[in-house]
Structure formats: structure tokens, C-alpha cells
Amino acid sequence: MRINIAKSASFCFGVKRALEIVFKAAQEVGRVYTLGDIVHNEDVAGRIEKSGIKKIGKLKKIKSGSLLIPAHGASRKIFTRASRLGYTIIDATCPMVKEIHKIVKEMRKKGYRIIVIGDKDHDEVRGIAGQLKEKILVIENINRIPLARIKKIKRACVVAQSTQNLKNVLKIVAILKNHVPDLEFFNTICRPTRTKQEEIRRMPLENDVMIIIGSKNSANTKRLYEISRSLNKRSWWVNSPKEIKPAWFKGARSAGISAGASTPEDTIKDIVKYIRSIPG
Predict the structure, then answer these.
(1) Which fold has domain 96-185?
(2) Active site residues
């Protein structure tokens, strides 16, 4: 059986950069804390914990120590409160997420209402929303657009969570344009996400079986799986070799492999090795 691996599989630029900052801090700085996970992957989270960085549930006053901001970013309140409580900030926010923060703040100053297309409970969306004092409108999917509220808006700026499905985002924007007289849309879906999605719209049609690798709490991996599954029902989402069932490959001549932006290369290699070991 032929195995085809997506060129974009494994870490994106933002995750690589964040992890470089994390492990450098673990070696060079004293006490380092994180609010939640740096990236959404259990294996990576385990490595970070072993490096000595401590995950905490909430901020509290300390004599000394650093707070590491994850790749997904954080609200302005977290930055302010952490500094007030004695933390030194180490900011590992992805530059592409920082760009979204900049757009949101600049457009709000110009008088535009801010609309974010994304998962409202995701760390990145919370961070985007937390750049402003007032509440922003978050639209999660095309079936949950609050048109009654939208119709009252005269000027709106629309941005997207960087790992959203581009096709879905454009459909939502098209609906919003019918109801908001002055609407500015910024396509803030990052290049690595777009590349991964371009590949995942092609690979399921070229392979008998698709394996999508990544943690179940990874939003971008979920998106890859959803797209793949819509094109090829023999698509499976796993995070380790032990989750794979040999029966999935029965009669298959080819298997495509893709992986989320926070999936380590070692995990991909282990899964490929396991698939190669399955009797043909």
C-alpha cells in the first residue's frame, strides 16, 4: 500500500516559534508558568511539563516568576493582571494572531463593530475578543448567525479565527454583506492553515484511506478531519498508533496522511511506521 504524506503535515510556523520560546525559557529563566496549554497537543504538553514549566489554573500574586503567553494569544486583561501580580511576561503569541489583534483594535477605533468568525470557547477567539473593552460578536457557523442583531449594525469589521475553514468563512461573510451596509472583511486565516486545507481538499480524492493526526482538542485538526470526511468516508482521526485499526486499510491501495499544526513530527513518523507494518 502506498502512503502519501501531506507536505504541510506537522508544526506550523507559529507553533514552532512558540516551542522554541518555551524551551529556551525553561533553560534560561527561573520559574515559568502557563495558563493552560501552550499548544493543543497532549504529547507536546507532556514535554513542556517535563521541562519544568508549570501549568496553572489561575493567576495569583508571586514574588518572582514569568508567565508564558501561548501561541493562541491572550486578552489584554491577562497581560495587565499578570504584570500587576508580579509576573514577567514572555509572549509566544503567533505573529499572525498578533496581526488579528492589531486589525481588531485599529478598526474599532475607526468606529467599526467587530465580528469574529470562530469557535467562541477557543483560546484564540477569547484572546481576540479580549483586545477590546466591549463585547464582540462571535459567529461559530452558518446555521447560528444572529440576523436580528446583524441587521442593526451599520458598519462592521469581520475577521476569522486563523484556523477556520475558508469556504465556510466566505459563505458567512456573503450573508453578512447582505445585511450590513458597510462591511470590511479581513481574511485572517493563516497561510499554513490555507495550505493544509488546500491539500486536504485534494488528498481524500486521491487516496483510498485518509488518516488525520492530531489531538482531539485541536481546532485546526478537527477542521482537517471534517473536510476529509466530507470527501472520503474512509477518513479517520487519531493521535497515536494504538488508535489505528488494521481493518481500516482492507483493500486499500493508498493511504493519505495529514496532521494538525500542533502535531509533532515524531508522532507522524510513529503512525506511518505502524501503518507500514500492517499486513497487506
Answers:
(1) Cobalt-precorrin-4 Transmethylase; domain 1 (3.40.1010)
(2) 124
The grid coordinates listed for 16 are 514552532
Nearest CA-CA partner of 224 in 172, 265, 164: 164
pLDDT in tens, 80-92: 999 999 999 999 9
Answer CATH for 13-93 from 3.40.50.2300, 3.10.20.310, 3.40.50.11270, 2.60.40.790: 3.40.50.11270
pTM for the predicted model, two decimal places? 0.90
Can you say whether the dihedral through the CA atoms of 47, 11, 220, 26 is positive or negative?
positive
Cβ proximity of 197 and 227 under 8 Å = yes
pLDDT band, very low/low/confident/very high, at 29 (cuts 50, 70, 90): confident
Q: Residue 149, Cβ neighbours under 10 Å: how many?
A: 12
| Average pLDDT of the chain to the nearest whole number | 94
